[in-house]
Recover the amino acids of this structure.
């Protein structure tokens, strides 16, 4: 009899499992209906929300892990993959068409840029250069020139993002392979190293010659230091300065629950929009930026407690602070004429979205816009493109549909956004009609 | 009673009688969950599925369900090199957790091996103690 009762008690489980399985599959159907085979349907902006007058179309989908993208003057899109597809790490979408794709480059990576007739692309430890001919074709796709080599790659923060100025220099992010330069990375109770030896070879932006072959870090200039990790950076030609987006530190609660609550951990530290001048020092690993207090504070690995400024008092502050852990993965200064006046020379920032906010809801997964004047923010930041997550529930859990990672401007002034989760590329246009 | 419901229920009973199907004691799971939430959740997430490209999933992987010695060693020592699961690389390091006691490590590993759809035999404090001693000798 007891056995039969036990047997009956399973029945609700069986039924529940069946019901929830059904619910799961119908969710998927609804999701799939938001696009038609991933293409934009008229009026729905490919599932994205945009300011009035802007429209979005899907240029291509399911390309793989598309990190940064660049669009050539003839409309060709080059996309850098962080995971090889059929052994190749760079995709070329001829004429910007998802229907005409070729690939080359046998290395994964993040950075890609075009300058003065050359295509630059980075692996996680090198920067390569390809010559573009008069027809804008890459010549010798299998034999690029090596511009920089042997940069630090230990997995963590290994993206080598690149930007070029108008004076023949290329700027390369070398992210610190560390959270806060502890003796044992991210281990509870492990002290911060002081001075931090990592700063000699990482944790900053290095400047190299854009046309000199086989440079190593010793040939470069440590242009700006004290930056934990950057994925998004861009040269602002209106003021001739480099701007970078810093990814702030993780794990304040897990390692220091005496000073930081679970909520503090989700809200600290700010992600920083930095004007990186030659010689700038933004304080990592000793300091972090508290967006609420608007202060650079001492990291707890170095004696901080969420209040002490200490040696961080005079450290350079960001020109703008963003919510914690949103992961700004691309920065683009808009120089086109297509978008309204407000957007000229302003900054678009692609936020990849958070993970270290758990168990608090995750956040981000959007493209923001910052109006700029004379190289400084001239107003508050705003969300420009949203909807990548695929709903509030997905956003909160971090189990999102798409994660914005790259930005590029087309020759007609349109804006391109890439996703490294599934490999979508969207094109954003503006029209007064 | 419909035949398919009887069959489904019967299947449940059969499954529940198989080897290693006994759930670990409730107190172990509760303690393990509390440690998971403090030490692991930030990276491996509430659902144990980790973070794309950064923090590996703990679900249905040999790293969690495989040999206990290897798993205990990872918790104690951490992992500094990126690991690959099903062709995807995960780049964030796993911190060392030497500050946790043998009991805490066995609790959290038993919890992880029996949560998120995982099912594997429990880890005992004695097993953690043994691995910790081996690692200490190697230093």
């Amino acid at each position: 009899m007891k056995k039969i009762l036990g047997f009956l008690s399973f029945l609700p489980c069986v039924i529940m499992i069946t019901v929830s399985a059904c619910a799961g599959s119908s969710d998927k159907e609804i999701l799939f209906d938001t696009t038609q085979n991933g293409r934009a349907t008229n009026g729905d902006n490919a599932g994205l929300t945009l300011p009035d007058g802007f429209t979005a179309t899907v240029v291509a989908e399911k390309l793989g892990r598309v990190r940064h993208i660049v669009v050539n003057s003839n409309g060709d899109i080059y996309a850098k993959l962080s995971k090889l597809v059929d052994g190749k790490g760079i995709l070329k979408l001829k004429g910007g068409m998802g229907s005409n794709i070729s690939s080359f480059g046998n290395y994964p990576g993040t950075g890609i840029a075009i300058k003065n007739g050359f295509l630059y692309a980075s692996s996680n430890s090198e920067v390569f250069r390809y010559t573009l001919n008069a027809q804008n074709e890459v010549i010798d796709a299998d034999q690029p020139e090596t511009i920089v080599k042997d940069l630090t790659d230990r997995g963590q923060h290994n993206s080598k993002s690149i930007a070029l100025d108008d004076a023949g220099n290329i700027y390369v992010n070398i992210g610190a392979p560390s959270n806060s330069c502890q003796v044992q990375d991210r281990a509870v109770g492990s002290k911060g190293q002081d001075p931090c030896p990592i700063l000699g070879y990482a944790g900053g932006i290095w400047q190299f010659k854009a046309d000199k072959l086989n440079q190593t870090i010793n040939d470069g200039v440590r242009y700006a230091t004290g930056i934990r990790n950057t994925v998004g950076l861009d040269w602002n030609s209106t003021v001739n300065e480099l701007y970078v987006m810093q990814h702030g530190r993780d794990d304040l609660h897990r390692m220091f629950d005496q000073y930081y609550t679970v909520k503090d951990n989700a809200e600290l530290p700010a992600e920083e929009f930095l004007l990186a001048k030659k010689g700038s020092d933004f304080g990592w690993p000793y300091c972090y930026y508290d967006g609420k207090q608007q202060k650079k504070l001492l990291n707890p690995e170095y004696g901080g407690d969420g209040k002490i400024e200490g040696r961080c008092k005079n450290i350079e502050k960001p020109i703008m602070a963003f919510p914690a852990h949103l992961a700004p993965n691309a920065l683009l200064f808009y120089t086109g004429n297509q978008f309204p006046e407000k957007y000229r020379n302003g900054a678009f920032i692609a936020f990849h979205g958070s993970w270290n906010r758990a168990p608090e809801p995750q956040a981000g997964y959007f493209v923001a816009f910052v109006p700029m004047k004379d190289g400084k923010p001239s107003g508050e930041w705003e969300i420009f493109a949203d909807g990548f997550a695929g709903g509030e529930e997905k956003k909160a859990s971090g189990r999102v549909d798409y994660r914005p990672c790259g930005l590029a401007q087309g020759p007609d002034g349109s804006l391109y956004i890439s996703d490294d989760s599934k490999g979508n590329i969207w094109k954003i246009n503006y029209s007064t009609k | 009673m419909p035949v398919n419901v009887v069959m489904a229920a019967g299947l449940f009973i059969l499954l529940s009688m198989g080897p290693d199907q006994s759930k670990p004691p409730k107190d172990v799971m509760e303690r393990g969950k509390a440690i998971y939430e403090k030490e692991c959740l930030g990276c491996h997430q509430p659902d144990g599925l980790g973070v794309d490209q950064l923090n590996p999933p703990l679900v249905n992987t040999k790293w969690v369900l495989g040999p206990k010695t290897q798993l205990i060693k990872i918790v104690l020592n951490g992992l500094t090199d990126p690991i690959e699961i099903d062709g995807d690389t995960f780049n964030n390091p796993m911190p060392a957790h030497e500050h946790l006691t043998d009991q805490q490590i066995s609790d959290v590993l038993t919890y992880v091996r029996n949560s998120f759809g995982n099912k594997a035999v429990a880890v005992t404090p004695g097993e953690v103690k043994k691995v910790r001693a081996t690692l200490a000798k190697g230093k």
About this structure: Residues 14-20 of chain B have pLDDT under 50 and may be disordered. The longest helix of chain B spans residues 26-44. Chain B touches chain A at residues 5, 8-10, 12-13, 37-39, 41-43, 45-47, 49, 51-55, 78, 80-82, 87-89, 91-93, 95-99 (CB under 8 Å).
